[in-house]
Amino acid sequence: xxxxxxxxxxxxxxxxxxxxxxxxxxxxxxxxxxxxxxxxxxxxxxxxxxxxxxxxxxxxxxxxxxxxxxxxxxxxxxxxxxxxxxxxxxxxxxxxxxxxxxxxxxxxxxxxxxxxxxxxxxxxxxxxxxxxxxxxxxxxxxxxxxxxxxxxxxxxxxxxxxxxxxxxxxxxxxxxxxxxxxxxxxxxxxxxxxxxxxxxxxxxxxxxxxxxxxxxxxxxx
Amino acid sequence: xxxxxxxxxxxxxxxxxxxxxxxxxxxxxxxxxxxxxxxxxxxxxxxxxxxxxxxxxxxxxxxxxxxxxxxxxxxxxxxxxxxxxxxxxxxxxxxxxxxxxxxxxxxxxxxxxxxxxxxxxxxxxxxxxxxxxxxxxxxxxxxxxxxxxxxxxxxxxxxxxxxxxxxxxxxxxxxxxxxxxxxxxxxxxxxxxxxxxxxxxxxxxxxxxxxxxxxxxxxxx
DNA sequence: GACATTAGTAACAACCTGTTACTAATTGTG
DNA sequence: CACAATTAGTAACAGGTTGTTACTAATGTC
Lengths: 221, 221
Fold this sequence. Notes:
The structure is a homodimer. Chain A is an alpha+beta fold. Chain A has 2 domains: 7-137, Alpha-Beta Complex (Nucleoside Triphosphate Pyrophosphohydrolase); 146-210, Arc Repressor Mutant, subunit A, CATH 1.10.10. The first copy, chain A, has 5 helices and 10 strands; from the N terminus they run E-E-E-E-H-E-E-E-H-H-E-H-H-E-E. The first copy, chain A, has helices at 50-62, 119-135, 141-144, 152-163, 169-178, and strands at residues 7-17, 20-27, 37-38, 41-43, 68-75, 87-94, 106-110, 149-151, 182-189, 197-202. In chain A, strands 1, 2, 3, 4, 5, 6 and 7 form a 7-stranded mixed beta sheet that branches. The first copy, chain A, has a 3-stranded antiparallel beta sheet with strand order 8-10-9. In chain A, strand 9 (182-189) and strand 10 (197-202) form a beta hairpin. Chain A is elongated, with a radius of gyration of 19 Å. The N and C termini of chain A lie far apart (52 Å). Chain A binds a DNA duplex through residues 151-153, 168-171, 173-175, 178, 190-198, 219-221.
């Protein structure tokens, strides 16, 4: 059995879908599979750095490289893993929304409506989603959930998604410009009805006061 | 060789010493040891939760339970570990200062003057210390570096230690009371010269706005 | 008793945030 | 074409928060 008693690398890949976060799962057709879906994973390879394995697994599952990927901790504690791994190193990743369907045998599930999972995968997903919210103020998670250019309304929607509350437009934009995180392009996007919105790109230009690295926590009521 | 090719649990235990942070190391007298000191560590045991192993290793090395202990990630990537572990799960811990000497064969080193270490332990220490500074605004790290009661000047000194910059007394105290994190005892401590200081205890009473769990980042210029 | 030293607080100005209310540019509808 | 509906973007004000200075309080030292 692959991975038995060894270590595994398991990926929690997130994307925005509508007003919710979605997580990528892979169909598990293994003979002894007790759940239909599992996180993308692979046995750890001693000759390959953990981050590299994670990048590879994420890319294979999602069909494209994750825009951001970072370790989310080690999980063991005798809870069942789909491949029987003794210990699993979880990675948390993020990728922009795509309209085309995911690769065969994979599916995006809303974060608040997950399928039945092996106990360890359930624990990993919960921990990873909690970390996503905690880490968004020190890593450009919100920007990596969007494509190269985006409207400020798009960006605000992502922040609202991650924070779980509504923000006020004026103060959101004010603190955004104060943080020197985005710069305008000269393109505009018309979303059907209403005034077209200017497109921006992520372009951090300044260490907010220089105190302990860049920050991404944007206020806004 | 113990731990060979398996997983290990490695502890980075910190304590305040003067105006600096110190990290605990254990003398490594192993036959094949290439460095004199190493982090407290133990092979991982599949039958024991990771957190429990970590608690045990930290307690044995320091002579008392860590006041706070939390996982800091998994490290592998072919860098040499003192016990030859394929993968190491690092834990970051914190304990109040003690005047009595540490257990035999252990020693506190200033964080900015570490001994020569096995490559993986060097990487783990650097990552753990960075995390200590990042996590202090979501975990009561500063309070766990102090004993059950402390003066506000003590607390301010710990925050300054962690942040690496001086804070202003008035605004530090103002934001501290606004956060409802401490409550006064009716004891006072005289530190030699100067007015005696009131002792406080850590007593979080309120979720700062209720937004995403308690916070511990105190401002103060 | 004067002085040095540390603890603790009051008060003010400058800045920042939350909010409201406005203007601007587009699509859809009669 | 006029006008409502809708979304984008900005101005401006009130109230709160922060950084800073300056003060008072309590102790040990000379």
